[in-house]
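Thread title: Can someone regenerate the structure for this chain?

I was given the following input by a collaborator and told the matching structure tokens would be attached. They weren't. Posting the sequence so someone can regenerate them.
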Amino acid sequence: MFKKITVALLIMASAGAWAQQKVGEKWVDNNLRFKVVNQSIKTEGLLTICIEDSSRTTCIENLQSGFEIKIYDAANQLLWEGIGSGRRDFLKVPQPLPTASYLTLKAFKPFVINTTTGNKIYQDKNILTRITVE
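Best answer:
Regenerated them for you:
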């Protein structure tokens, strides 16, 4: 009996941790966001980005999304803006930005692509993440 209860609890816990759901014919996951894994914008102009599941704070390596990036200083002045295809996990700005304070990453579309299956995983709106530059 104890073994059956333990197995049932494990199944329920793992199902709750997996945020992706099939809604009609579409996969939906509103727990996705951009994450900066490594940054040296102020000194080298480099940034490493992934898409993570915010409920588990882990990067999901097979997800990609095109995005726009905007980098601001402490006075909210735009220092640089550009785009990324999402196919690579790094981005290099033309020059270091020593006065950078924060950046925003916004997905072009309200979905990401699972590169393993080719499926689109939809969100209610485009992913938008604000990140403090260190």
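Residues 2-17 form the longest helix (16 residues).
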